[in-house]
Amino acid sequence: MKRPATIRRRLLLSFGAIIALLSLFSALIFSSIQQTHRFLALVQEDVFGIGSLSAGVERLYTAADNYLHSGRPEYLAEYDGDLVSCLSGAAALSRRLPGDLGYQMGDIRNMVRSMNELKVEAVARYDQGLEAIYVNRYAAELGRLRGYTRTECSRVLDGYMLVVKDRAAEILSGIERSEWLSYAVLALVTAASVALAFRMTLDISRPIHQLAESLLSFAGGRLDLPPIERRPRDEISTLVESFNLMTERIRGLVEEIRRKSELESELKRGEIKALELENALKQSELETLQARINPHFLFNTLNGIATLADLEEAPRTKSAMGNLAALLRAQLDSARGWVGVGEELESAEHYLRLQGIRFGSRLAYEVRASPESVGRRLPGMVVQPFVENAVIHGLEPLERGGRVRVSARVEGPDLVVEIEDDGVGFDAARSHDAARPDDQGDTRRHEGIANVSRRLELLYGRQAVFVESAPGEGTRVAIRIPSDGP
Fold first, then answer.
1. Domain for residue 301, yes or no?
2. String of DSSP letters for 322-351
3. Measured distance CA(477)–CA(486) in Å, rounded
4. Model pTM greater than 0.85?
5. pLDDT tens digit string along 238-284?
6. Domain boundary among 292, 316, 348
């Protein structure tokens, strides 16, 4: 299977070729420099060796002459050290110097040996008490051998310099050839780099430019773009293919959304018509109910019954009718939407008074509001369902009855209304199932809690009812009304 020509791989191959050419160029230059360096080092070593040999011969003569004229043994020690150095140096040069120069250096080594033989003879005669005139003759002979040796060293050095000159000319010629070759390689690398950079720039920038223009057009709202032409398989080709696929899917999604929007518009028009019919039906039912039961007639009738109970000396009946009339008026007034805290708690107290007639001493209740909470307003009929739930479901199952506390206070910016009872309690974690039928087919006992909670949550956009309860431990409901109400 052929590997895809990814941009990374193409770049690596291209730059690898450039690096190889540069490495070859560097190797040529380095080789020329190394050759020149080795030649210069060898010339330096040979010239220094010839000079050292000539100076060593001079030291040999000086040490021997000093001993013959002074007899001091330290001069012999110096002589012996210089002799070893001269012989080893001459031997090394004779092996290293080319052609006749090596043979000439061998002759110089023999002259050093002859000079040493003459020195040995002179020292032996000097130690035997040779006369001064003969000592001077030995010294003169040593000086003559020294002169011959130094002359030969000069000749060898001159010949060596001629060889070095010829060799240097060859090296310079090679350097010139390497220089021209280096220029050619450098020009080739430069041309290849420029061509490669231009080619890679076109290969990479051109499709990216096309892709960028298509993206700008698509972002500007043009959804009918033609697909971008696909390239050989690489990363940019993957981007182009992904963009073509994305635009195709977005066009499909836009078309689907358009169809759904049209369908939703039809459904909303149908829902509006249904709501209009439902509102008309409710309005008709309300008008029918109002026609059947005139509130003023109902209040007057209840007041008449209360007056009759007063004439018949039935105060409890009169109180019950009064509370019922007040509770009915409060429920009708709650149709206005918002009521004061005092009105809502008064309605709850009327309900508790009516239930007190039924429960008697089994029901004790307390209704209070802090002064700063009395002037606040809240949605109508949000307290009474919880009070009813506390009495009917919390206290009625208990033979001993219980107590209901209703209170209102201000906490920070919010109004808090609490309904608390010490009844049977329930599992608060399951209170969200209030509207689901139970096993007996009745609605669940906490339907009022769920309905009011949902109503307030829709009104304020957040949870407003908080319930704390447990079986056998009573129930506490806190209604938190935000300060941004009317």
1. no
2. HHHHHHHHHHHHGGGSEEEHHHHHHHHHHH
3. 23
4. no
5. 777 777 777 778 777 777 888 888 888 888 887 776 676 566 455 54
6. 292
